[in-house]
Amino acid sequence: MVKSLTDCTTLHNGVEMPWFGLGVFKVEEGQEVVDSVKAAIKAGYRSIDTAAIYGNEEGVGQAIKESGVAREDLFITTKVWNADQGYESTLQAFETSLQKLGLEYLDLYLVHWPVKGKYKETWKALEKLYKDGRVRAIGVSNFQVHHLEDVLEDAEVKPMVNQVEYHPRLTQTELQVFCKEQGIQLEAWSPLMQGELLDNATLQEIGEKYNKSVAQVILRWDLQNEVVTIPKSIKEHRIVENATIFDFELAQEDMDKINALNEDRRVGPDPDNFDF
User: Fold this and answer.
1) Which of 54, 109, 119, 166 is an active site residue?
2) Is 54 a catalytic site residue?
3) What CATH number does the domain containing 183 carry?
4) Does the predicted TM-score (pTM) go above 0.70?
5) Residue 1: pLDDT band by 50, 70, 90 thresholds?
């Protein structure tokens, strides 16, 4: 049972990754991202998830510097964008991200999307960065089972994390089973389905039972399903509220009710059919 904001899952290489963090997708570079990351760190968050394509790595880096929290106490993730995939270009993209963040090393570096014909070369670059000690853990994002099988065929280092769209309308059961078997930690992006689930009657009812918001119920459900979660918010009160999920536990019947909301429905792109 995850009991606090600092509780971690241990990745298959022994690195500890917080179960809960802040995502900064669509958070504006500059004051907005600086304020939101600082508010999260102040509230006790230790994990921050960004990506090259978000265009806000510099602001995240500034917030880390201004937070007053020691670098080694934080867990920082970023991702290589599709246009930079391939071996040499990924190594370059990594240096650029590190520079923007103003960091000496990364905690987690992810392949953002499974770009056909490129992601295996990209993975080789991540293996090199990992072996060189530039990053503590490496993983992928938006990979389906067949993409993972493809990478595993000749990977020297198995991905430690797979970050995917995951929420009560998209429970990714088959993918989660596969990742568990392989020792790959599943992580949720868009855990609140970009707000679409906040007026769901079933979730509201469960929230009333525990005296919690729908968002808190969903984020607790993530953790009880052993999925790392990184909800995004730019409002300090919401950042604090999202993290107030360690003082209750959902009963199995409520977990089942939430699992039953699955419709295999995405709000984001389909990893088998995207063109960017």
Assistant:
1) 54
2) yes
3) 3.20.20.100
4) yes
5) confident
